[in-house]
Every structure is written in structure tokens, then in C-alpha cells.
Write a structure and sequence with these properties.
Chain lengths: ~800, ~350
């Protein structure tokens, strides 16, 4: 909403500096997006009077004039000196008062006036037309000022153009502020000033009654709650008077013609959009024009004022004439077939209340917004349609020379009842937490146009009809608080009695997971929760266990048209992104949701997963440590550290079935279990998957479901005595077939070692065809024997170890290396 | 007394040798040569028996003095030499301390998570709980129960991602377009869930990911994060809202930052306002960063609208409350003056490792 300071100041006393009003607007909730100062660039543009006009010696259409600009131009003697100006306009005579752009002036279109020679005659300025001054469309000749206009004063000062326009953003709950009258009321309340408004009245009604000329029918009250029609006859379509053009311009519209400008002016003044139909273009039956408001039929077409053909759907509201021909889109835009033009004689003036929601659907359905639709969408005051029609009729009479027909065709099926709101003064103070006095509340609400009658502890309040947002007590409280001043309310902290907060155990554990992963050198990433259709296929994941995809109806791109069912594709794309940008060593993790949809339910399951990828060097390489590429065991170590830190027990890694884990490299892939519960997987991403995602080199990855991690995590494990007695370390290198796993060997050793075996640690795996044999490997363990109550003798240790060797060899077909 | 003179000579020679010894090995050779089993002093002591009885006490005393002197000198020299050896070893061991350290460097927490956790910690300190809910929501929780009118523009497909509703009965009567299931555009729906299942007092925040159909550019992401808060209790005032958010802003933005409350409109709250913090670049004087206003808009908030309480089955006469929401990415962008929000989503190690 563009608010002209000059216009507003005719209705309410304003501070001299518009910035002071801006500050008050900000304080009370009207956002000012821009402050435009009009006319400030009109330097060197002054009023003048043509002293003489002579034909140009070298031209048959130019004139050489001497123009008096008073003291604006002085000669060497310091005395006022008229300017010589060469002018091409034909609409002036000597003695006329004109507007002169002197040398140095810059016109709104950017033209700078310089001293020049036109066909050999010197010209020291220019006489301006309205269009050249940016004041209107008239370019038929130069602007002729009234005879009483002073000579030699800045034009902006005389014309009153030095105006400031505040461009205000109006929140959707305040349709009243989309009008100058509403703004005046708001400003009156903010500044605690009286508002004075003089509205034009029709001088004389003449001719036939509107009811004899027009019939209105509201076919669908869901579209239109009130429709007032007035008729004015014999309009003289032409340019608007300058005051009208000026105000319409300041409000942001382009002056078009007096008829159109009047409707726009009244809309800016009252917030009520009007439409002027050329009465003669509406079809006639029984001597009357018929206007029908109804829903459009699917596919019905209207050419709107902007020349566009609009194809309607049934949620579009239409105005049609009797032949069922659409003549306007209800509340949005008029039709070309009933448009005002130079030949228009009689006008049907529409002042209606189109439904807010319906107008919004019409506007959205056709992707068409207008000053009218913006206002109807937010709610127009139905009780005032008729008054506004009268204001417009009066202006047609004044500005267009129209004859106003008596009578208003007014279809108003259901008049709303004015709400009465009980307001409790104590409730205001309690909600605000501020000592606002009763008298202040009363004053604020009265300034806003509310009717108040006192009652026990408060008032019965009747809000003005222009404020559809005021229906409940809390709506009034808001008004009081914002006018009293939110900044004045003392800041306090609530006591929060009987309430305890803080992170839950699970929330703390999720943070712990994140900490451990970071301690292991992984960096947290956040990737899109969207997915491309076919992402699972792309990486080689089966859909089994991952539900159906959640499909977005209105995606931005096909690549983001589903919700992800795995985090891995996103992280692999981040690997490719890093590599494409020259980063080789990559270690990323993400803790996020995936979306497993159901075939017959609205909402999906949204389990969280802990996902990680590692590629390139391990990240611990240095100037004296050789670079090492990450491999399976780096990823596995992170998983082990994570589970150990969460105190998840009975952790096992089992080879992953290549059939099931198509995205992992067979032989370098494992399922992660705690007991019988599957937690996730770890492994090398399959080279074929990497190739499809343009990833270079190896990538190791893991994905663990968050829910079982949180469930199986433990706050503590039982304390174990720190050994006080020395243990005995014995090494055991055992040669076994390749298919005997480390896990098997450790299990055998542990069970054979009995109580005296304190710990087993693998420290070497060795393969050598000659020394170990093909298809065999040597696994070297360090075994520590210890008793809690005594130092073991060497005999005891030897005996126990011999038993281990014997049993393990027996069970695994192994032999002790070097034995 | 030739023996005494001999002892004199041994002592002089030994002490000179010890003083001149350049290494522990050389010192040890001298020790062996003097006090060793076949050493010169040992030899003298062994020959004591062949001396005249009256000479023995004199020579014996002298010999013991010499031995004590030699041993003392040996010990002193040994200490000196080992000190020197240690010093030499240390000197040889010196490194260029500006060479980089060695080890696996820790990973980093995503900038957005860091800020989210900071906010969580501030509110946990005030006794709030941290709540979350589904990302794929229904229009009821995302809009209707939050008092958003049926025709509210935020419900349109331009401002909300809708998803296909697979429920058999979900094929009819959708408020907006084809579906009543959507990607949540705000985390406020979590507040409705909490109010439905929990009686006041409620002090909670709901941090989390939300979605809006904005094409990703320097200032927008279709997926971003919000932290929203809700308090419902007896006697909660607008002053409590201010006190809480003033505290929050000081904790997150710095103790020297001022706040400003501008009345505004949100369907969910009434009275509603927007909160600005003073610009950290110009401290309120007005600069390019704050578009000349001296203030940066960072929060939306207000007193919970009674309609919302009604939707959630809470007595709006007995309880009042406030709610607020803040964009995490916006705080990140303000704190670091990030030129492009898209960097938050690429997983670029060069970006992530900075925070």
C-alpha cells in the first residue's frame, strides 16, 4: 500500500518529518518497505509566464519565446532576466503561465536540459508537458497553468508535488489499511490525533432510476455477498483533473482517463474496489441491462482488460450479462467486451463485496492478481458498498461531467450482525504483563473506531465494520498492547513451576554417537532428504524392507520428487562432489531420517540412520607417516568404537550375503549384529555402484539403524577389578586354512584357555606359499594368562597353554607355526 | 719413603688422567688402571705386607687418602661426563617444533547442527524439553490446528510440498489440491502433537528439518531447519515472552546485542510480533548488512492464539502461552556472513572442516 503523505495529511495531522511517522509505524506493526520522495528531483523546474511568442526564422512549427521566470534567472546586473526558449508546442499564447525546465534540470525520464541551439536559435530551457514532468499522460501540448499561478517559484512547491510516499507492507489481517481512510484511522490511533474526512456528495440526481435501467442477480451467494449498482449517464471521457491524476499516481496507478481514475481513486480512498462497465455494451432485455454473478463453467473463456484470454475452471467467479456472456472476472478484472473507451456514454458502476476465499481461488486458478483481487481476498467491508458507490457517483459528476441517475440497485441477501465483544481490563493486563490503565485502553479502542459501553470490569466493544480481524477479546487485547507499546512491556522470565526439562537419554545418546564419529575423524554432512526415483536401483539396493517411496506431488525437479529411502546415495554424491572439486580424502557422516512409505497409509515410517562414507587417505598421514588408503577395517573400526562407546554388547560381524547386499563389494562386506539383532552393515561400496555415481577409487561405508543403537546402548557396565598381579604373555602363531575365521580361532582359544586366560589379541596375519602353504594363513595371537589371587607359576602357564594349543589345533585343523 | 712418593705419583697421574678423560669409556680405563684388580694403587696396597711395620700406618693412611681422592675424582668426572653425554644426546635429538603434529584429526559437527545444539542448550538451561515429530505431516497438524485459514496462501502448492496420500479413504475432500499429506513447512506441528498428549505446564522447543518449494539459491534452500518453541502455563504473559527471547538472543548473538519487538501478524499467535536484534556490524547505526535499518530480523513470535488451544483441547481461559520460531540457517548465515546457503548441503569437506 502506497501512502501519500500529502493525501494523508489532509485527513490527520502528521509530524513534519515523515521518518517520525515511519518510526511510529514500525512501533505499532506497520512495516514500511520504502520511503519514496516525489518531486525532490524537480530542481531547476520553475513556474513562468510567456512574455512574447514569435515565429522561428528557420522553421514553420517552432516558436521563439521570451519567458519570465522571475528571480529564478538573473542577468549580470543581478536583475531578473527572462529566458529565451525555443518551443515546438502549438497550444499556448503570450501571457500563458507555463512550467519551465531551466538549464541544469533533469526530467523524470532522465533527460537533462542544456543550453542549445535549435535551427540556429539559442534556447535556454524547455516548456514542459504533463508527460514530460511525469504527471500524467497528456502530451498534446505544454502544461498551461492557471492565470493566478505565481511566476518564478519552484514548480514542485507551487504544485504541491513535493510529496513523500510510504510504501507499507500490510499484513493479511488488516484489509482496512489497504485504504487511505483506514490508514488515517490507524495513524490517528497511533498518534492520538483526530481524523477529519470530507467525502464528496452527489449534487444532483437526474434521469431515470437505476432500477429501471439495471437488474442484478446473485446466482451464487458464495461468490458475492452484496452487489450495488449505480448508473451515471453522459460521461465525458477525457483526462483527469490534475489533483486526481496526482493522487492516483502517488498511490501507484497510472492515470488513464477520468472514468477509470475515479474508480481507482475511490478504491485507494476507501479500500472498496469498483468496476465501471460501459452500460451500452451490456445486452438489453425488456429495456434493462442484466448483471448476473455466477460460477464459471469449465472451459468458459473471457478476454480480460489486459488483452489476455482466460480459460475458466468452475472455481472462478464471473459477472455475466443477460446473454450469459462473461463481462468480468468477479473481483479480479473486467472484461474487454464491456470496457470503458472514448465513446462510452453511460456507465454502470459496480460496488460489490466478493467473497474473500472465492476471490482468492479465482485469482489463484487463473494466476492473475490485481489491486482489486488483493483487497477482496482480504475482505471488503460489505456494509459500505453503497456509500462507496455514492462517493464514486459524486466524483463522476464532478470530474466526468456525468448525470447521476437516482437509485441504487442493491442486492444484499444477508446483512451480517455487528459483533459485540466483551473485553475485560484485567485480562488485558494479565496477558500483556503490563500495567495498562483502563483509560488508555478506552482511548486506543475509540481511536480505532470501536464503540464502547462500560460493563463490570471492562466494556462491551463493537468494532468498526472495516475491521473483520476484530472478533474476539484477544483481538482487542492485541490492539491495546501494540498501541500501548510492546517495547514498554517489562521483560520477565516465567517461573516454570513443576516443570523439569533437558535432553532425554536418547537425545543425549544421539549426541554421543555424533561425538564418537567425530573423534574417529568423520565430519558431519547434511544432504537432501529428497531422492531421485531409481536412486536405490542406481546404488544397487533392493527395495525390500524399505517400503514404497513417498512421492512428492509438486516437486521442484524430477531429481527431488521422492523422499529418500537410504542416506547412502546422497553421501556418495557428496564424495563425487568432493572429488570433482579436488578433495581426495573424504570422511563424512550423516544422522538423518529415511522414509519408508506404506501402500495403504498416509504417512510413512521415518526411521533415523547413522550413515558414513570414507574415501582416499585415512587422514593420519603426515610428513613422516606414509599415506594409507582407507579400507574395510577403517570403517569397521569406527563401527566398533561407536558400539563400544555406547556399551552395546555381543557385537558380531558376519559376512554379508552378496545377493542381499548388492551395493557392497562381495568379500568386503559385513552385517553388524548385537546378539541376534541386526544393526546395519559395513563394507566397501561395490565398484560398479561407484562407477555409476562417478566416484573414483575405493569407498568404505556403513549404515546403522538408530533405533536399535539407542535401545541396546547402556548407561553403564559392571566394574571389573583392575589386575594387581602380573600376567604372563605367551605368543601363539597357528597355521590354519583360509576359511577358518579370526572369530572362530578366538572363540576356540577363549574356551580352551579357561579361567586362567585373561585376554587374547591378534597381532599378525601372515601368508606365504612356501613357508605357510597355499590356501593357508598364519594367525599370531598374544595370550595373557593371569589369576586374580596369585602369581601363576611357569608350570601352570605352560600347562594351560599346552591345552589351548592342543584343543585349538584339534578343532581347526591348524598347526603351531615353528613347532 | 719411596712408597709414599710412589703413591704421590699415582695420585697425580690418576687425577690428571681423570681430568683429561673425554668419555665414560676412557674414565673407566683409568679406573681399571688405578683401582682395578691389577691397578697401580691396588698393587701398592697389596704390597703393604712387605713394608716395615713402622712405615705401614703412614703408607696405609696415605694410600687410603689417594684411593678416596681418586674415587671422588672418578665419580665427579663421571657425573660431568654423563651430563655432557645427556646434553649431547638432547642436542642431537632436537626437532623443528614447527613441523606439524601427527595423529588422526577429529571431525567436525555441521554448522547447522552446532547452532541447533547451542539453541537446544540455551532452552534446556531454562528447563525446556526438546521434542520432534514426523517430517511427513498432515494438513491438520501443519496448518489447521495452527489456525491457518483454509485459503491461507501458505497452504498452496507454491509454498508447500504435498505428497501422494496412499490411504484408501484419503482420496476425497482434500482442503488443498490433491492431498492432505505434506512435507512439514514448519515444526509447529510438533507443538500440536505435544499439546494433544501432554497437559500443561509445557516448556518445549522443536528443532528440526522443514521443507518449502523454494528453488535452491544463495538465500534459499528447499530443505532447511527451524527451532520453534512453545510455553503453556498458568499466568504466562507477553512480558514472559520478551524475557525469554531477550535471554535467548543475548546467549546466541552476544550480550551486547539489543532486541526490538515489532507487532506483526501470524495465524498461530495473537498478539504476534517479529523480533529484531541490533546489527552486529554497525551496532544499530545502519549499514549495508542490515539494509540501513540497524536491525536484523531473526524471530517470529507471539502469544498462542486461543483457537490453537481449543484445537488442542487446552482451556484457554486457565492457560496462556507463547510461541516463537527461528531459522537456523539464517542465524548461521548472519554469524558467518555466508555468501551462499547451498554450501550447507553439498558435503564439501573444505566447507565442513571450517566449523
Amino acid at each position: 500500500m502506497r501512502v501519500s503523505y500529502e493525501w494523508l495529511s489532509t485527513m490527520v495531522d502528521l509530524p513534519d518529518d515523515p521518518q517520525d511517522l515511519v518510526a511510529e509505524f514500525v512501533r505499532t506493526g506497520t512495516e514500511v518497505e520504502a520511503v519514496d520522495r516525489l518531486g525532490v528531483d524537480f530542481d531547476h523546474i520553475v513556474t513562468g509566464r510567456v512574455l512574447a511568442k514569435e515565429a522561428h526564422p528557420n522553421s514553420d512549427h517552432l516558436w521563439v519565446c521570451r519567458v519570465d521566470v522571475g528571480a529564478q534567472n538573473v542577468g549580470e546586473d543581478g536583475e531578473p532576466e527572462p529566458l529565451q526558449i525555443v518551443c515546438g508546442a502549438q497550444n499556448f499564447e503570450a501571457g500563458d503561465h507555463v512550467v519551465v525546465s531551466m538549464v541544469g534540470a533533469t526530467l523524470p525520464d532522465g533527460t537533462t536540459i542544456k543550453k542549445s541551439k535549435l535551427r540556429g536559435v539559442e534556447s535556454c530551457g524547455m516548456n514542459c508537458s504533463e508527460r514530460e514532468l511525469g504527471l500524467g499522460s497528456n502530451h498534446a501540448g505544454i502544461m498551461i497553468l492557471p492565470e493566478d499561478a505565481p511566476v518564478g517559484v519552484p514548480f514542485a512547491q507551487w504544485y504541491g508535488i513535493a510529496d513523500t510516499v510510504l510504501d507499507c507492507e500490510i499484513t493479511p489481517n488488516r484489509p482496512d489499511c489497504l485504504s487511505m481512510l483506514g490508514m488515517a484511522t490507524e495513524v490517528g490511533a497511533i498518534l492520538d490525533e483526530d481524523v477529519r474526512v470530507e467525502l464528496p456528495r452527489v449534487e444532483r440526481e437526474q434521469g431515470p432510476d437505476a432500477h429501471d435501467l439495471v437488474e442484478v442477480e446473485i446466482d451464487d451467494p458464495g461468490i458475492c455477498q452484496r452487489y450495488c449498482a449505480r448508473v451515471v449517464r453522459n460521461v465525458k471521457v477525457g483526462p483527469s483533473p490534475e489533483w486526481l491524476a496526482r493522487r492516483v499516481t502517488a498511490a501507484g496507478a497510472r492515470p488513464i482517463s477520468n472514468v477509470v481514475d475515479v474508480t481507482n481513486y475511490v478504491m485507494f480512498l476507501t479500500g472498496q474496489p469498483l468496476h465501471a462497465f460501459d452500460l451500452g455494451k451490456l445486452s438489453e432485455r425488456d429495456g434493462r441491462r442484466h448483471v448476473v454473478v455466477r460460477a464459471a463453467r469449465d472451459g468458459e473463456r473471457v478476454v480480460t482488460l489486459d488483452g489476455q484470454e482466460r480459460v475458466c475452471t468452475p472455481d472462478v467467479g464471473l459477472i455475466t450479462d443477460d446473454r450469459d456472456r462473461p463481462v468480468a472476472l468477479a473481483g479480479v478484472m473486467g472484461g474487454q467486451n464491456s470496457e470503458i473507451d472514448e465513446t462510452t456514454c453511460d456507465v454502470l458502476l459496480e460496488s460489490a463485496r466478493f467473497d474473500a476465499g472465492h476471490t482468492s481461488r479465482t485469482s489463484r486458478s487463473l494466476d492473475l492478481m490485481s489491486e482489486a483481487s488483493i483487497r477482496f481476498e482480504r475482505g471488503v467491508d460489505a456494509t459500505r458498498c453503497r456509500d462507496v458507490a455514492d462517493i464514486a457517483a459524486a466524483l463522476f459528476e464532478e470530474c466526468c461531467g456525468a448525470e447521476v441517475c437516482p437509485g441504487v440497485v442493491d442486492v444484499y441477501p444477508e446483512q451480517p450482525e455487528a459483533p459485540v465483544i466483551a473485553l475485560r481490563a484485567d485480562r488485558v493486563r494479565a496477558l500483556a504483563g503490563a500495567p495498562i490503565a483502563d483509560a488508555e485502553m478506552e482511548r486506543f479502542l475509540a481511536r480505532l473506531g470501536c464503540g464502547l459501553s462500560a460493563r463490570e470490569g471492562g466494556w462491551d466493544v463493537v468494532p468498526p465494520t472495516s475491521r473483520p480481524d476484530l472478533v474476539r477479546e484477544v483481538d482487542l487485547i492485541e490492539e491495546v498492547v501494540r498501541l500501548w507499546g510492546m517495547d514498554r512491556v517489562e521483560a520477565t522470565l516465567p517461573a516454570a513451576r513443576n516443570h523439569a526439562g533437558g535432553l532425554t537419554v536418547d537425545q543425549q545418546r544421539v549426541r554421543r554417537i555424533s561425538e564418537v564419529l567425530r573423534a574417529c575423524g568423520l565430519n558431519e554432512a547434511q544432504t537432501y532428504n529428497f531422492a531421485r526415483p531409481g536412486d536405490l536401483d542406481l546404488v544397487g539396493m533392493s527395495e525390500r524392507g524399505r517400503g514404497v517411496p513417498v512421492e512428492i506431488i509438486n516437486p521442484l525437479f524430477a531429481e527431488q520428487s521422492q523422499m529418500r529411502r537410504s542416506i547412502l546415495p546422497g553421501l556418495l554424491r557428496s564424495v563425487a562432489y568432493n572429488q570433482a572439486h579436488g578433495t581426495r580424502d573424504i570422511a563424512l557422516y550423516e544422522i538423518g531420517r529415511v522414509f519408508f512409505g506404506h501402500a495403504h497409509a498416509s504417512q510413512p515410517d521415518e526411521p533415523s540412520y547413522v550413515s558414513a562414507v570414507m574415501a582416499g587417505g585415512r587422514g593420519d598421514a603426515g610428513w613422516d607417516v606414509p599415506e594409507r588408503e582407507v579400507d574395510f577395517f577403517d570403517a569397521k573400526f569406527v563401527v566398533e568404537e561407536l558400539l563400544r562407546s555406547l556399551r552395546v554388547e555381543k557385537v558380531r560381524f558376519r559376512p554379508a550375503d552378496p545377493e542381499e547386499y548388492g551395493w557392497l563389494q562381495p568379500g568386503r562386506a559385513a552385517e553388524v549384529y548385537s546378539g541376534a539383532r541386526l544393526l546395519g552393515w559395513v563394507g566397501n561400496v561395490h565398484p560398479a555402484t561407484l562407477a555409476r555415481l562417478d566416484v573414483e577409487g575405493d569407498v568404505v561405508a556403513f549404515e546403522l539403524a538408530e533405533e536399535p543403537l539407542l535401545r541396546l546402548a547402556q548407561r553403564e557396565l559392571p566394574y571389573r577389578e583392575v589386575p594387581t598381579l602380573p600376567g604372563s604373555e605367551v605368543d601363539l602363531a597357528i597355521i590354519v586354512d583360509e576359511d577358518v575365521t579370526c572369530e572362530t580361532l578366538v572363540q576356540r582359544i577363549t574356551s580352551a584357555g579357561g579361567r586362567l586366560l585373561d585376554s587374547v589379541r591378534l597381532f599378525d596375519v601372515y601368508r606365504d606359499e612356501e613357508r605357510v602353504g597355499s590356501g593357508r594363513k598364519s594367525m599370531a595371537f598374544s595370550l595373557t594368562y593371569r589369576a586374580a589371587d596369585r602369581t601363576l607359576t611357569s608350570e601352570e602357564v605352560e600347562r594351560a597353554h599346552a591345552k589351548v594349543v592342543r584343543k585349538v589345533c584339534q578343532a581347526t585343523g591348524g598347526e603351531v607355526r615353528g613347532a | 719413603m719411596a712408597v709414599v712418593e710412589e703413591l704421590q705419583g699415582i695420585e697425580a697421574e690418576a687425577l690428571a688422567g681423570i681430568a683429561g678423560a673425554g668419555s665414560l669409556e676412557e674414565l673407566d680405563r683409568i679406573r681399571v688402571a688405578v683401582t682395578g684388580r691389577k691397578g697401580s694403587l691396588t698393587k701398592v696396597l697389596r704390597s703393604m705386607g712387605s713394608l716395615a711395620p713402622e712405615e705401614r700406618p703412614v703408607v696405609g693412611k696415605r694410600a687410603n687418602e689417594v684411593r678416596a681422592a681418586v674415587e671422588a675424582a672418578l665419580e665427579a668426572r663421571r657425573t660431568e661426563l654423563s651430563q655432557a653425554a645427556l646434553e649431547a644426546r638432547i642436542a642431537a635429538d632436537a626437532v623443528d617444533v614447527t613441523l606439524p603434529g601427527r595423529g588422526l584429526s577429529q571431525g567436525t559437527l555441521h554448522l547447522v547442527t552446532q547452532i541447533k545444539q547451542e539453541m537446544e542448550d540455551v532452552f534446556c538451561g531454562l528447563g525446556y524439553t526438546v521434542e520432534d515429530g514426523p517430517f511427513v505431516e498432515t494438513t491438520w497438524y501443519n496448518f489447521t490446528a495452527l489456525n491457518a485459514p483454509e485459503d491461507h496462501p501458505s497452504r498452496s502448492a507454491r509454498d508447500t510440498f504435498y505428497v501422494v496420500d496412499n490411504a484408501p479413504e484419503g482420496k476425497e475432500a482434500h482442503v488443498q489440491g490433491e492431498s492432505d499429506v505434506l512435507l512439514r513447512t514448519q515444526t509447529s506441528g510438533v507443538q500440536v502433537h505435544v499439546m494433544e498428549r501432554q497437559k500443561p505446564p509445557i516448556y518445549m522447543i522443536s528443532p528440526g528439518t522443514v521443507f518449502r518449494p523454494d528453488t535452491a539459491d544463495a538465500n534459499h534452500l528447499p530443505q532447511f531447519n527451524q527451532v520453534e518453541g512453545l510455553v503453556v502455563d498458568e499466568g504466562i504473559t507477553f512480558g514472559d515472552l520478551k524475557g525469554t527471547l531477550d535471554y535467548f538472543c543475548r546467549e546466541i548473538f552476544g550480550a551486547d546485542r539489543a532486541t526490538r519487538y515489532r507487532p506483526h501478524f501470524f495465524p498461530f499467535t495473537e498478539p504476534s510480533c517479529e523480533v529484531d536484534v541490533s546489527c552486529n556490524i554497525c551496532h544499530g547505526a545502519g549499514c549495508r548488512f542490515c539494509k540501513g535499518t540497524g536491525w536484523l530480523e531473526i524471530l517470529g513470535c507471539g502469544m498462542v492464539d486461543p483457537n490453537v488451544f481449543e484445537y488442542c483441547g487446552i482451556d484457554a481461559e486457565r492457560y496462556t502461552g507463547f510461541a516463537f520460531g527461528i531459522g537456523v540457517e539464517r542465524v548461521a548465515a548472519l554469524r558467518y556472513d555466508l555468501p551462499d546457503l547451498r554450501m550447507l548441503m553439498t558435503g564439501d569437506m573444505r566447507f565442513l572442516r571450517q566449523f
